[in-house]
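Request: Give me one sample?
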Amino acid sequence: MPPHKGMRFSWDMKMQPEDLIKRADELINRCRKVYDHVGAVPDNDVSYESVLKVLGEIECEYTSERYMWDFPQSVSTDQAIRDASTEADHRLQAFDVEISMRQDVFNKLLIVEKKQELMKPEAKRFLERLIKLGKRNGLHLSGEIQKEIKTIKGRMNDLCIQFNKNLSEEATILEFTEEELDGLPLDFILSLNQNPDTGKSEVTLKYPHYFPIMRKCKNPETRRLMELAFNSQCINENIPILEELVKLRKKQANLLGFSNHAAYITDLRMAKTAENVSEFLTQLWHKLTPLWDEERKYLLELKEEECKEIGIPFDGKLNVWDLRYYITKVEEKKYVVNQSKLREYFPLSVVTQGLLDIYQELLGLKFRKIEDAEAWNEDVQLFSVEDSSDEKLLGYFFLDLFPRMGKYGHAAIFELQPSCLLPDETRQIAVCAMVANFSKPQLDKPSLLDHNEVVTFFHEFGHVMHHICSQTDFAHFSGTNVERDFVEAPSQMLENWCWEREPLKRMSQHFLNKSELPEDSIDALLKSRLANTGYHNLRQIVLAMFDYKIHTNPEADTKQMYSDVQKEVLGIEPSEGTHFACHFGHLAGGYDAQYYSYLWSEVYSLDMFYSRFKDGKVMNSEVGREYREKILKPGGSKDAYDMIIDFLGREPTQDAFLINKGLKI
């Protein structure tokens, strides 16, 4: 990849597997020397300049380079490269543990704190954060406890990497006849590979196959087989990993003086305590249950009606494999939303251009496609981002939107280079990659998105903007390095543009005749936002409560706990032989004891949208620019709660959240 202005991150197309591990080791050794130097500073010479500033600079260098070596595991088509990148990640995460446990460096930080030098607010926050993190690693405790914590952290890192590697390498293929796929659009069926020996269509468990089948396939047995395979993927490999992680997390929390892992986690979050999380989820559960009770009755009516039509017995209950199918029918019957027809108006190229135009106008930015960019795959695109007012370069983002074997299977952004100050006080630009798995274009038809995928695209690109637009002094606070129970709020807020008339028109067009999305289709879609809101939100509560329970109980039979929570909240049992948590990547991807944060942060996201954008201001660039300045630009350099108050001009409330869910306040 040719160099671009200010971009350290690069992808060497001739990279060999051994190069990744070698370069990761070189980075580790180079950074270790800096930590050794800081740890050896004489106490009399300890100052902001000799300790804190040096630590900030080396963190910038480390985070700017490490992703060149551990990112390939998520996107490379070469198995050997992915394996080497995974090994590099093991070593880098082991080094993360090592530097987090440096007693000598921690002692220097305590001296800096004691000297009470005048420093900028962000530098003071950085000092306070490093000291708090040191204490959360036991550096104020005995050497014996520290050694045990270091061992635990190293083991947990290895387990998390293996959990996610198992999911990335998962390659189950199911085969179905055309009759077994009845109800699926013809373009979907034609896009599937055919087994020449059996004549059947091959289906993977990746999102572009799984979700359309679960939503549209009329054959309940096909849906049952898909759900069984989907929710049992990596079950033998990942359940032991998850349950060992739960035990290790509890042990670490106890060593540090916390009653459980959830208490340890929330100590650094907006929620503050595990009890606050439990109360939040429980209250919301009870408020949403009446909505779900009504929805469930209607879903059962639809199922009974269809069973009569196709001549099969009605079992009187909703099975897990029924849910997405009949929920889709609710949208079509009650709200007259035909998702298959709607897809025809959301070709990926049109959605992408509309999304980019909306974000540019709203946030005061200018995107330029880099035509000569080389990346890890020919489908990947690279864009630069400038401030539209002065054309100042802010950063770059990659778009990697189509599924590949071995590629990360969900939608996420990877922050490849932080925006922060360099030693010469110039600003380093931000670089990130958005990775998704939208269906790939066919020879006779473009990639078509359903509305849920449009929302996903808008959400993930919101994270891209958070990363690119942040302007912090220290890499430690750059981009999305905010409180974990706030990190989703900026992106969730921008999902609302997918539910507003003007933005919908700007990112839709029929793939054949270029016609506009009809007004009646827009009306139906907007009304459908309340469709199944009880189920969708209670489903989030199931996951959040499960996450909370396994991280607050002394022992965790995760399979039984998941089953109990789902039955209690939704009244539906998981399928025999499945365990959702075996592919619940959040539990091994940094969301342990904090999955609640999606709902928690949505409260703030909806308050921001309803208060500042909702009534005729969705494309108000003045408000958008203020949002960029007060929410995105600070990164994590300020408390999230203070940023929200600054943007709202008042204390936040839950009112908008409850209204949005169809509840009375």
